[in-house]
Amino acid sequence: MSSERYPGADSLAQRGQWDEATRRVIMDRVHNVPPYRYFAGHWRATLEALCARVIPQDDRRPEDRVPLAPWIDARCYQHTISGFRFDDMPPDEVAWEWGLQGLDQVAQALHQADFVDLDGPRQDSVLEAIRGGDPPGEVWSRMPVRRWWVYIALRQITGVYYAHPRAWDEIGFGGPAYPRGYFALNNGAPEPWEAREAPDGTRRNGR
Q1: Does residue 72 lie within any of the structural domains?
Q2: Residue 70 belongs to some domain of the structure
Q3: Residues of the domain holding 133
Q4: Nearest CA to 55 among 130, 169, 156, 203?
Q5: Is 5 exposed, middle or buried (0-12, 13-18, 19+ CB in 10 A)?
Q6: How would DSSP label each residue in 77-137?
Q7: Coil, strand or helix: which one is 190?
Q8: Number of domains in the chain
Q9: How far apart are CA 175 and CA 163, in angstroms?
Q10: CA distances to 89, 95, 123, 203 from 60, in Å
Q11: What is the pLDDT of residue 83?
């Protein structure tokens, strides 16, 4: 996938420069999207709808979209931890369960429908209520809404997105520099192998 801002970006073209362990991890991330094993049915659809509002990808062909919800599901299934946990928060997988329930509770209070059944603008209004820090819903008496929104929803969804080479191409990141390393003493300019940013006025849409 070409980037509008970095039209020559192709981080996967650099994979021959990576060590075997790095190449294996990244190519697995691209080609082996995990199956859903934790969430199913309504809750899987709710997670997918949330991911689609946090990082919309409707302007891309399906094959060019970065899969988000399956990796969140995998984190929950594997009980993956972030290395820390606030003392007023449950384990991440429980926080995801409660948070998805909370989305529905806010959606029902504001629009008398579940989150997944709302159109985009009304879903955004639900997320705005959550971001505001005082949404309706019993779930938020059990779990701090700001912590869920920032450290569970936003942090993990964006973390999945920016771990993917397609997202790297959007921001002009050439991928891991190991073992090659950064060697050019050029006052912060790109390395010879990194993509160049398109000049203003000449950017093109390559999606």
Answers
A1: yes
A2: yes
A3: 33-171
A4: 156
A5: middle
A6: HHT---S---TTS--HHHHHHHHHHHHHHHHHHHHSS-GGGS-HHHHHHHHHHHHHT---S
A7: coil
A8: 1
A9: 10
A10: 35, 30, 21, 17
A11: 87
Contact 104, 43 (CB under 8 A): no
Whole-prediction pTM: 0.90
CB-CB contact of 90 with 62 (8 Å)? no
Q: Quick check: is 104 in a domain?
A: yes
pLDDT digits (tens, 9 = 90+) for 123-169: 999 999 999 999 999 999 999 999 999 999 999 999 999 999 999 99
Q: Tens digit of pLDDT for each residue in 44-75?
A: 999 999 999 999 999 888 888 999 999 999 99
As a whole number of Å, the CA-based R_g of the chain is 19
Task: Provide the terminal-to-terminal Cα distance of the chain, rounded to the nearest Å.
Answer: 6
Q: What is the pLDDT of residue 56?
A: 96
8 inside domain:
no
